Amino acid sequence: MKQHFCQVVENRILWADAQLLAFDAPELARAMQPGQFALARAGTTFDPYLRRALWLYANAGAGVAFVLSAHDPLAARIRVGD
Asked: How far apart are CA 67 and CA 76, in angstroms?
């Protein structure tokens, strides 16, 4: 499992119960394929085990976008630039 540190470039409601998180992560964007997911955690927490499954929504160029539940605390807490 590879670990990537990346910056959030977009965080918005996609549908009523889905949140879109987009990251500036060129290496990750090149590696991701349709049907894959990534495990993410907020950089502000010290717990290495509580990670969320983010499902690939789109990847293009240097960016990658994931979808997670809009009710997830990570979606409410994370901000653009984090």
From this structure: 13
**Is residue 75 exposed (0-12), middle (13-18) or buried (19+ Cβ within 10 Å)?**
buried
Q: Containing domain of residue 68, as a range? A: 7-77
Indicate whether 2 belongs to any domain: no
Give pLDDT tens digits for 41-65: 776 666 666 778 888 999 888 899 9
- pTM recorded for the entire structure: 0.81
45: CATH = 2.40.30
Given this model, what pLDDT does residue 22 score?
92
